[in-house]
Amino acid sequence: MLLKKIAGPLLGLIFAGCILLMLAHPASALAAALRGLAIWWDVLFPSLFPFFVISEIMLGLGIVHLFGALLDPLMRPLFNIPGSGGFVAAMGYVSGYPVGAKLTAKLREQGLVNRVEGERLVAFTTSSDPIFLLGAVSVGFFHDASLGLVLALAHYGGGLIVGLLMSFHGRKEHTLSAKNQTPPSGQNSGRLRMALSSMAEARRRDGRSFGELLMGAVQSSLLLIIVVGGLVVFFTVLMELLARAGIMSALFGLTDRILSLAGFPPELSAALVSGLFEVTLGARSAGEATASIPLHFKAAAAAFILSWGGLSVHAQVASILNGTGLRYLPFMLARLVHAFLSAGLLLLLWKPVISSGLSEHWNSLPAASGLASPASAFVSSLSLLGLLLGGALLLSLLIMLSGIAARTWRRH
To answer: Does the keyword Cell membrane apply (predicted)?
Structure first.
C-alpha cells in the first residue's frame, strides 16, 4: 500500500526531471529521438509489421485452432500449455519480440488460454528473431558469422529451458478451461479430423470475408507497430538524458564492481547497462568492446542482453498485456532467468561448438552473410517459420501415430 502511495509522486518527479533535461539539452534529445526513429523505420517496421499482419490473418482463418488441436499432445506434457501455444512459439521464435506476447494476448482474448497458461506462454516465446541474432549481432556487431551457432544454441536453448521451468508456474491456481482440455487417449485417432473441424468452426465464428480480415489485420497491426516505435524512441531519448545527467556513468561504475567481483571483465559494463534499456544498443556495445576482452565473454554478454530484451521490449510487452489479465512480474522474472541461462549456456558450449567446426557452416546462411534488404530478411524468416511449423506438426503426428500403435498393440 505504501509503495502505491509513493509510486505516483515519484514517477511524476522523474518525468519532470526528464523534461528539464530535455530543455537543457534539446539538440541531444532530438538527435536521440531521430536515432530511435531510424531503428524503428529501418529495422523494426519492415521486420515485424508483416508478421503482425500474417498472424492476425491466420487467427481469423482458424489456422491457430488447427495447430492447437494437433500440437496439444506435445505442448501439454512439456510446457503445460495448450497446443495453440505451439503456433505462438514458432511465430515468436522466428519473428522475434514482441510477436509472442501479441499472439498470446490474442489467444487470451479468444479464450484459448487462461491467465496462468498465458503467463507461461509469453514468458518463453519472447525472444530475438534469427535474422537479428545472425545478421545484425554475429555479422554486423561482432564481424564473425561463426558466432551465430553458439549464440543461437544459448539463446533459444535457454528459452526452451525457461518454458520447461515455467510449466510449474501457477500450478496451484491452474484450472483447465473447457476449450483446452486434452481429449481422452481414445480420441487421438480422430485428432486430425477434430483439428480440421475446429479450424472450420473458428472460421465460421469469425465470419469476416478475406478482404475484411485483411483490412482489420492491417489496421490493428499498424496501431501496434506505432506503439512499438514510440517506446523505442522514448527509451532512446531516456538513455541519452540519463547519460547527460551522469546517471549512466554511475551505473557503469556500479556494474564495473559487480563484474569484477564475479570474475568478468569490468569493461563489459557499458554493454550490459545499455542492454538493460535497449537490446540493439547493448548488443552493438558488446560487439564493439575493446579487443583485449576475450571473445567468449563478449559473446556471453550479447547472449545475456538478447535474452533480457531491454526495458524497451519489456514496455512493449507490458503495453500488449495491458487489459488481458496477464501479469507482468512472471514475464520479467522469466526474462532475468533466461538472461543468466543463456550467458551460462554460451560459456558452457563455447569450446565444444567452436572447436568442432560446426559454426563455420553457418557462414553460408543468408542471415550470416549479411542480409542486404528487409525483403530478403522477411523471406528467410518465412522459410525458418515453415521449417519450425512443419517440424512441430511432424512431431505431433508421430506422437499421435505412436499412441494409436500402442493402443492397437495392447488390444492384441
So the answer is: no
Of 140, 63, 52, 61, the closest CA to residue 96 belongs to 52
* Contact (Cβ atoms closer than 8 angstroms) between residue 400 and residue 182: no
pLDDT < 70 stretches in the chain: 1-4, 7, 172-191, 356-412
Domain boundaries, the chain: 25-168+185-411
Q: What is the pTM of this model?
A: 0.77
CA proximity to 130, closest of 353, 368, 304: 368
What the block records as the C-alpha cell of 202 is 473458428
Report the alpha-carbon distance of residue 238 to residue 19 in Å, rounded: 10
42-57 pLDDT tens trace: 877 887 788 788 878 8
pLDDT digits (tens, 9 = 90+) for 20-75: 888 888 899 999 999 889 888 887 788 778 878 887 888 788 887 777 777 777 78
Q: Which helix (H) or strand (E) holds 325?
A: none
Residue 128 main-chain phi, psi, to 5 deg = -75, 150
> Are the beta carbons of 130 and 361 closer than 8 angstroms?
no
3-state DSSP assignment of residue 326? coil
Q: How far is it, in rounded angstroms, from Cα 44 to Cα 312?
A: 13
